């Protein structure tokens, strides 16, 4: 991918993919978007001491870094698993400024440098397992309490919002598990409902009217 670092409106970095004409995060603020979608309206809703997370799209590592911060602040144990088809290079991730915004015991660079396909205890409260593969090719016997669905938008990668991919997300979740995403497209919401999710719309981050929280009710 042909990518360049940009500065979003809250001062935090994101990446612009020149081939797509799309950014990894909202131009209104990368950190504030991720914190609103995946922390405030995602993992913070789960009332468990140990929380198993599956992230679609490790990307810049921002969601993982914010989740590590959440674990430390809230005395939670997080088992974090993430999928990425096109990992950042060292020359890219070492320039990202998220450690200026997110205070954690380890740096963003450390998260990126953890070896692939090895479950590593980053801290006593947070473990990370990364898979470098396409989402379509990913499978696991593990079960999760929450799925962070943070892939590129439907207009750019519609295949990642297919019934098949969303069904796999449902299957990976524990009962009452949460699927959370920044998107709120009618077609996607209908697919989630057809699969069996209970879909809730809520206020989106700055610059976006709504987002979706879907629950696997059994």
Automatic annotation (TrEMBL):
Query: Which GO molecular function terms does the record list?
Result: oxidoreductase activity, acting on the CH-NH group of donors; tRNA (5-methylaminomethyl-2-thiouridylate)(34)-methyltransferase activity
Domain of life according to the entry? Bacteria
Keyword Ubl conjugation appears in the UniProt entry? no
One Pfam annotation, family name?
Methyltransf_30
InterPro entries given for it?
A: MnmC-like_methylTransf, SAM-dependent_MTases_sf, tRNA_MNMC2
Where does the MnmC-like methyltransferase domain lie? Answer: 135-216
Keywords on record: Methyltransferase, Transferase
Q: What is this protein called?
A: SAM-dependent methyltransferase
**Any one Gene Ontology biological process term?**
methylation
């Amino acid at each position: 991918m042909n990518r360049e670092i940009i500065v979003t409106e809250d001062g935090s970095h994101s990446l612009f993919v020149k081939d797509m004409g799309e950014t990894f995060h909202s131009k209104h603020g990368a950190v504030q978007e991720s914190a609103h979608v995946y922390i405030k309206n995602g993992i913070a809703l789960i009332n468990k001491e140990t929380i198993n997370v599956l992230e679609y799209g490790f990307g810049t590592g921002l969601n993982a870094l914010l989740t590590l911060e959440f674990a430390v602040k809230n005395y939670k144990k997080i088992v974090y698993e993430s999928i990425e088809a096109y990992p950042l290079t060292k020359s890219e991730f070492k320039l990202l400024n998220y450690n200026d915004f997110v205070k954690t015991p380890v740096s963003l660079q450390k998260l990126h440098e953890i070896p692939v396909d090895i479950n590593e205890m980053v801290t006593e409260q947070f473990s990370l397992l990364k898979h470098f593969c396409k989402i379509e090719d990913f499978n696991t016997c593990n079960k999760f309490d929450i799925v962070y669905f943070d892939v590129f938008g439907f207009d750019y990668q519609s295949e990642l919002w297919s019934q098949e991919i969303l069904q796999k997300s449902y299957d990976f979740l524990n009962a009452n598990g949460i699927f959370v995403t920044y998107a709120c497209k009618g077609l996607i919401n209908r697919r989630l409902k057809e699969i069996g999710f209970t879909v809730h719309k809520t206020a989106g981050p700055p610059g976006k009217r709504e987002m979706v929280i879907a629950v696997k009710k059994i």
